[in-house]
């Protein structure tokens, strides 16, 4: 397996508080890799640190063989890494179309029409809502828009932070099915941070468990789904 994203010995701080403690993690080309853990474990911090916010105190982050550890955030964004952040964070006063334009701007609008057709094929609902302001969409539609906006730059790696947060179970299922399809049909590599451990582990080829800023377990998604310790902590009324 060729690593597309490789994180080694990563530590990060918020002020004097250590958020990440020597994290080692890899996402291979064409893989879906999940990161699960309780609230406050450092999952979103790890996702954000890939873009340099917070900056790594120690360790290295390689993307497609290139060291991006100290690279400015705007330069990292141009490297075929796209992020759908926690809480969606769409531009609520902009229309659906304008949000998609913002996603394409990172890549200099390369292949704009083709990418637009692609995201409408994945999320037909967005085509129907094209002139609607982002803030007037339902939660599920906003999540679709956040993912579609990320896809408009035609990334090699998609970072998905808590895509199921606050969504109805049926909508969650649709979002996870979409991610699966993107991976299988487009070969898109996905790094997924998710509190819904059941859906995340079912979807992922491999997964990591993060506890207090450190990786405590890793393995195939299906194996972790069956692991008694993982089940007790994240799947059977433990930490969610």
Automatic annotation (TrEMBL):
Source organism of the structure: Rhodoblastus acidophilus (Rhodopseudomonas acidophila)
Pfam families associated with the record: ABC_tran (PF00005)
SMART domains: AAA
Protein name: Branched-chain amino acid transport system ATP-binding protein
InterPro entries given in the database record: AAA+_ATPase, ABC_transporter-like_ATP-bd, ABC_transporter-like_CS, BCAA_Transport_ATP-bd_LivF, P-loop_NTPase
Example GO molecular function: branched-chain amino acid transmembrane transporter activity
Family: Belongs to the ABC transporter superfamily.
UniProt GO BP: L-amino acid transport
Keyword field contains Repressor: no
ABC transporter domain boundaries: 5-237
Keywords, in A-Z order: Amino-acid transport, ATP-binding, Nucleotide-binding, Transport
């Amino acid at each position: 397996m060729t690593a597309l994203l490789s994180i080694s010995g990563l530590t990060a701080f918020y002020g004097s508080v250590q958020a990440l403690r020597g994290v080692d993690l890899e996402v291979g080309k064409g893989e879906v890799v999940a990161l699960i853990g309780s609230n406050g474990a450092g999952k979103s911090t790890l996702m954000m640190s890939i873009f340099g916010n917070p900056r790594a105190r120690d360790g290295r982050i390689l993307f497609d063989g290139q060291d991006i550890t100290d690279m400015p955030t705007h330069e990292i964004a141009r490297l075929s890494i796209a992020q759908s952040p926690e809480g969606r964070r769409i531009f609520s006063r902009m229309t659906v179309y304008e949000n998609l334009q913002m996603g394409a701007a990172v890549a200099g609008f390369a292949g704009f029409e083709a990418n637009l057709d692609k995201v409408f094929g994945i999320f037909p609902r967005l085509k129907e809502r094209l002139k609607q302001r982002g803030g007037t969409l339902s939660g599920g539609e906003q999540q679709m828009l956040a993912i579609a906006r990320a896809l408009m730059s035609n990334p090699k790696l998609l970072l998905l932070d808590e895509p199921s947060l606050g969504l109805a179970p049926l909508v969650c299922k649709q979002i996870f099915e979409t991610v699966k399809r993107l991976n299988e049909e487009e070969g898109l590599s996905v790094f997924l941070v998710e509190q819904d451990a059941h859906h995340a582990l079912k979807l992922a080829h491999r997964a990591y468990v993060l506890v207090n800023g450190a990786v405590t377990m890793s393995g195939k998604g299906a194996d972790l789904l069956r692991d008694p310790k993982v089940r007790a902590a994240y799947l059977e009324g433990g930490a969610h």
